[in-house]
Specification:
By secondary structure, the protein is an alpha+beta fold. It folds into 5 domains: 37 residues, Orthogonal Bundle (Arc Repressor Mutant, subunit A), CATH 1.10.10; 34 residues, no CATH class; 165 residues, Nucleotidyltransferase, domain 5, CATH 3.30.420.10; 67 residues, no CATH class; 77 residues, no CATH class. The chain has a 5-stranded mixed beta sheet, sandwiched between helices. The protein has a 4-stranded antiparallel beta sheet with strand order 8-11-12-13, with no helix packed on it. A 3-stranded mixed beta sheet has the order 9-10-14, with no helix packed on it. A hairpin with a 5-residue loop joins strand 2 and strand 3. Helix 2 crosses helix 3, helix 12 runs parallel beside helix 14 and helix 15 crosses helix 16. The termini are far apart.
């Protein structure tokens, strides 16, 4: 088909009196084509209008589209079953011609070096050690250099957000002026878009790195296109065909892949690492000391000597049985504190219902283990009534409840009731093998009433 310049040249030569043969020879085109252009007298290229086989069936196509929920593949299958011989491209062209979608020209965002970093998360199904897990891919991209960093987490709360962003700032060797996020509740306290107010702990975290969190307007996903675009690349390139033994191996390979990708040229901007060399000097310097993000929890040591954290159990010394402990969870460790003592475990990053036990906490093999511990209550009882040690030992052995509970109850009785009455009741209980503290308390009250109070005679008036 002749373009508009050729048509303009044909009309110009025809106006000068040249014949069709002469024009065709000069422009090296066929004479029929020259004659058609001269007859039309127009420079514009005419559109080829071909009648569609679906003309007059617009209502039927609209009904099928509605029934098939907008899936034109299903509409084409239904038309084929009805005997309408039409190709799928012809169907889509007919639908577009009937209701052309409104289109807006694509815009472009320009960012100065070190001005903005975009952060977002996306779920991916990843096979780890032969089992598929739904993992959250957290990604961060420097908007000027397009330098990418991402990691994977089983869940993504504010704790994981602080862990990831700390690693991202360390990877970029600095922090940008602002970090663009979506309107997720992980960062947001209230409001959306420009009215978004970050949660106090996240605002304090950003202040530590001299940056601020901002959110794009609701529904304006294009505003965070720098970080949205790589998710498909991660899914179809990094995760395709790779195997992982655990989450640490997954994140280690992700970091190596980022190094490789950031050194490759991109069609739009060039090589990210080369642009990063110019951006690096303008990033906010990292603090001299960066505290490790942690999550603090209070737990009670169970009867087996373990503490439960994220559906995994971590061992503690047998002496801590039934005690309240403080658990500090970091990105790589689980630290359990009891007073001035601390037990450190390597953290299991997936909820595997796994028992993690240190060799020092493992009972001797082949021996029947009894967890004997010096409880605070037992020491207090020894100070108040040193001669009831035989009953205390028997109570710990034969009592039907946890020793800590029984000793706490007995200590309360020792502090509330006269010692002589309690000592006599415990001696009698030990002689008869009685370890029910409710009955023992009634025995103490009977002795206390007879010796310390004058009871009125029922016949006395």
């Amino acid at each position: 088909m002749l373009h508009h310049r050729q048509r303009a040249a044909i009309l110009e030569l025809s106006a000068k009196g040249l014949s069709a043969r002469q024009i065709a020879k000069v422009l090296k085109i066929s004479r029929p084509s020259v004659k058609k252009v001269v007859e039309s007298g127009k420079e514009t290229v005419p559109r080829a209008l071909r009648p569609s086989r679906l003309e007059g069936r617009q209502e039927e196509i609209e009904e099928l589209t509605r029934r098939c929920k907008g899936n034109l593949v299903r509409v084409h299958e239904e038309l084929t079953e009805q005997g309408t011989a039409v190709s799928y491209p012809a169907l889509t062209a007919f639908v577009r011609s009937q209701a052309p979608p409104p289109r807006q020209p694509a815009g472009q965002y320009e960012f100065a070096p070190a001005y903005e970093m975009q952060h977002d998360t996306s779920p991916h199904d990843i096979e780890i050690n032969g089992r598929t897990w739904r993992m959250q891919t957290a990604s961060a991209v420097l908007c000027y250099s397009h330098r990418l960093f991402f990691q994977h987490y089983y869940r993504f709360t504010r704790f994981e957000a602080k862990v990831f962003l700390t690693e991202a700032f360390r990877y970029f060797e600095g922090a940008p002026e602002r970090t663009m996020v979506d309107n997720t509740s992980v960062i947001r306290l209230c409001g959306t878009g420009k009215d978004m107010v970050p949660a106090p702990e996240m605002a304090a975290f950003a202040e530590r790195f001299s940056c601020v969190f901002v959110a794009h307007e609701k529904g304006d996903a294009n505003r965070s296109g720098r970080v949205e675009r790589p998710f498909d690349y991660i899914d179809n390139n990094f995760l395709a065909g790779r195997t992982f033994t655990d989450v640490r191996d997954l994140n280690r390979q992700a970091r190596q892949w980022c190094q490789k990708v950031n050194a490759k040229p991109k069609r739009e901007v060039g090589v990210p690492d080369e642009l990063y060399a110019a951006e690096r000097g303008k990033l906010r310097p990292l603090p001299v000391f960066i505290p490790e993000p942690e999550r603090v929890q209070i737990r009670i040591v169970d009867v087996e000597g373990f503490v439960s954290v994220d559906r995994n159990r971590y061992s503690v010394p047998p002496a801590w049985l039934h005690r309240q402990v403080q658990v500090r969870v970091t990105a790589a460790r689980v630290e359990i504190d009891e007073g001035d003592q601390t037990v450190v475990h390597e953290r299991v990053l997936l909820p595997l219902d796994q028992r993690v036990q240190l060799p020092a906490h493992r009972p001797p093999r082949g021996e029947k283990v009894r967890l004997v511990r010096e409880l605070d209550e037992e020491r207090a009882l020894s100070a108040i009534l040193p001669d009831i040690a035989p009953f205390v030992a028997a109570l710990k052995k034969h009592g039907r409840k946890a020793p800590a509970f029984l000793l706490r109850r007995l200590l309360k009785m020792a502090r509330d009731y006269p010692q002589d009455a309690l000592r006599a009741a415990l001696g009698e209980a030990l002689r008869y093998g009685l370890y029910d503290l409710d009955r023992i308390e009634r025995m103490v009250l009977e002795r206390t009433a007879h010796h310390y109070f004058r009871l009125r005679d029922p016949d006395e008036r």
